[in-house]
Write a structure and sequence with these properties.
Bound molecules: 1,3-dihydroxyacetonephosphate
Order of helices and strands: HEHEHHEHEHEEEHEEHEHEHHH
Shape: globular
Largest sheet: 8 strands, parallel, barrel
Oligomer: single chain
Strand order of the largest sheet: 1-2-3-4-5-8-10-11
Number of helices: 12
Length: about 290
């Protein structure tokens, strides 16, 4: 059964570790993340962006697939199915479809509108026992070759949004999606300290988990980060393993073209990346 991310994240914040959110793209991805969580007795959050939702055939398809796998693969660790960077309408659709957690990313709205929409979603999600992630200060990243630096969230705005009663809060601290440029300045720990001080015990979320050095991840966890999102790193390891298989000509040997064989190295590569992250985040054995 899917669960809200609330208990797992409060426990993580208290215990000074973080739960990974791993974005899923298809059946292989989902199975790899769920099995790795189960094998390592770790709680886990499956992230679905609106684009990935469309790609996989809609939110209801995903809910059916994930619930089916939890039952048939005998997954007993806590699993939350979470909308990543959702719009207001997207969040409502996922709630309707059976997601156990949603993110409303109102960071691109004026703060008043972010507050108004987040307030409505706090009401809806808390009535249904679902978790809600809000965002202040947009996360940068590469889009069409332009690299954004990633905003630093204003601590007072973070406090205002946290006080609305959201389950967890994503705050921009110089983190970006995708790979970090060579001249990246690193995470803004002064800002994170301020945000952590004013937001009480609200678990903080670190987006853009790919490529952040280990010491920075550990320091961020010590300053209230209890959820870390990873997407690109699984994509890179899946692609590298698949490339190797094809370049070695294995798809041309025997039944090597069978998708169950062709996608197997990529599947194993995702499992290895997820396990590595769970070790780094400290969530192993915490289910
Ligand atoms: P990366 O793709 O950089 O790992 O970021 C993932 C993320 O933050 C999803 O919200």
């Amino acid at each position: 059964m899917l669960v809200s991310a609330k208990d797992m994240l409060n426990k993580a914040r208290e215990g000074k570790y973080a739960v990974g959110q791993f974005n899923i793209n298809n059946l292989e991805w989902t199975k790899a993340v769920l099995l790795t969580a189960q094998e390592n007795n770790s709680p886990v959050i499956l992230g679905v962006s609106e684009g990935a939702g469309k790609y996989m055939g809609g939110y209801k398809t995903i809910v059916g697939m994930v619930n089916g796998m939890i039952e048939e693969l005998k997954i007993t660790v806590p699993v939350a199915l979470h909308l990543d960077h959702g719009s207001y309408e997207g969040a409502l659709k996922c709630i309707e479809a059976g997601f156990s957690s949603v993110m409303f990313d109102g960071s691109h709205y004026p703060i008043e509108e972010n507050i108004a929409k987040t307030t409505e979603l706090v009401k809806i999600t808390s009535e249904k026992g679902l978790s809600l992630e809000a965002e202040v200060g947009s996360i940068g990243g590469e889009e069409d070759g332009v690299v954004g630096a990633g905003e630093i969230a204003d601590a007072n705005e973070c406090k205002t949004i946290a006080d609305l009663g959201v389950t967890m809060l994503a705050a921009g601290i110089g983190n970006i999606h995708g790979q970090y440029p060579a001249n990246w300045k690193g995470l803004a720990f002064d800002a994170l300290e301020d945000i952590n001080r004013v937001t009480g015990t609200t678990p903080l979320v670190l987006h853009g988990g790919t490529g952040i050095p280990e010491e920075m991840i550990k320091k961020a966890i010590s300053l209230g980060v209890a959820k870390i999102n990873v997407n690109t790193e699984c994509q890179l390891s899946f692609a590298a393993a698949t490339r190797k298989y094809v370049e070695e000509g294995k798809d041309l040997q025997g039944k090597g073209f069978d998708p169950r064989k062709l996608l197997a190295p990529g599947f194993e590569a995702i499992k290895a990346t997820v396990k590595e992250k769970m070790e780094l985040f400290g969530s192993i054995g915490q289910a």
